[in-house]
């Protein structure tokens, strides 16, 4: 089994709207978890990105550093999660990438997470991202 998760979804919305759901904490909270998540970042290359919350009674912290930030085009950051049950060490960090491409009225959102390891199957990362990307699509396509 590969330790990389890759998914693509086509969204009938402008890239600017999709981008907001990837970078604005109030909008991220609409799709990330079913409980509120505290999201901290300066949203610039080199800045930390931290997600903290409680998932069904289990406190968690997802963290990393922003590697690439091109508004409405590309967001990439290193990623480690306490939910992975792997030590917080460089070898256990992966990279999460969101790439947006516009084709007329459709924005294609391409998602990749590297170094997911056994966490990809044991913790149902594939299921999570299928659901999360579906929510991002639904929220973006909803009438304003």
From TrEMBL:
This is ATPase. Residues 13-139 form the Activator of Hsp90 ATPase homologue 1/2-like C-terminal domain. Coiled coil: none annotated. Belongs to the AHA1 family. It comes from Chitinophaga flava. InterPro entries: ASHA1/2-like_C (IPR013538), START-like_dom_sf (IPR023393).
